[in-house]
Amino acid sequence: MYRVAYLEPGHISTDSKPKCSDQLSIRPIFIISSIIKDSVFSNLLLSHLIWEKEDEQIVADIMRRRFFPAVLTHKAWEGFHFAGHEIKITEATDSYGAVVWPSALVLCYFLETNSKQYNLVDKNVIEIGAGTGLVSIVASLLGACVTATDLPELLGNLQHNVLQNTKLKCKHQPCAKELSWGVDLEKNFPRSSCHFDYIMAADVVYHHPFLDELLLTFDHLCQNDTVILWAMKFRLEKENQFVDRFQTLFDLEIIFDFPSLNITLYKAMRKGRMQSDTPNGLSEEEIPKDGSFSCL
Ligand SMILES: C[S@@+](CC[C@H](N)C(=O)[O-])C[C@H]1O[C@@H](n2cnc3c(N)ncnc32)[C@H](O)[C@@H]1O
């Protein structure tokens, strides 16, 4: 995520922004230190700059994916452009889970723009706290076999959105299923038969009383080769505490970070399973060739 540049004083200029391969521009944010240690370096001021990804440009790009009805209709909806499709999401204002949250957009954008490295074709994906289902829809359009989950009262709207936006457009038809965090996990999602390549979650940590149950759910669903993609909006100290607790079970890596939105996208795996060369942490040799990574 972050790149470090060591520049001589004359070269410290925002005009000299390096271009990075992932097409994200970066900018210096602060000078860590200027160290003159001994005579060897006495004529040379080494300024250590940390470059942080400039998020404005990419955040603007993410937000441009959203569109709204041109005229007022009896039904509230929002539109999005992802994975080459126009996606219309029916919303309501009476529930947290009935509107699209910005973390979901960030995760969708990541999935679309990193579809080579994180190839979802035939991958088994579960989304928890799916809300309106945007992330599940985009993952399905990108070829995954998706189970979108949420509380029972959200399932009607979730199912409607998922069906409306994926019918006859996807390799695998996604399904919507109840998953109340921490409740009947082994009964409804037995570890012996439910293998997920990815667990996806957007904005599931906020001021609610089910953080223990949420962690339990991640723990139950995550097997040794499962990758968690978790987009998180930071609002209060509680969120930081949850990240600390999360890290007692999982290794965490920041793969996208937007300070202007206070949103971070994490990749996580069970402790000791993360390798950075492949999305699922396995080396090429370890990846099963027998199709056991494909949909159930
Ligand atoms: C802030 S919304 C985010 C919705 C969606 N992921 C998005 O980013 O647009 C949080 C979601 O978590 C779900 N949720 C909250 N508590 C839950 C629980 N105990 N079990 C399952 N889902 C829960 C809500 O119903 C809601 O859909």
From TrEMBL:
GO biological process per UniProt: methylation
GO molecular function, one term: methyltransferase activity
Keywords: Methyltransferase, S-adenosyl-L-methionine, Transferase
One Pfam family cited in the UniProt record for this chain: Methyltransf_16
Gene3D superfamilies attached to this UniProt entry: Vaccinia Virus protein VP39 (3.40.50.150)
UniProt-listed InterPro entries: Methyltransf_16 (IPR019410), SAM-dependent_MTases_sf (IPR029063)
Chain positions covered by the region annotation Disordered: 276-296
Name the record gives this protein: Protein-lysine methyltransferase METTL21E
Source lineage: Eukaryota, Metazoa, Chordata, Craniata, Vertebrata
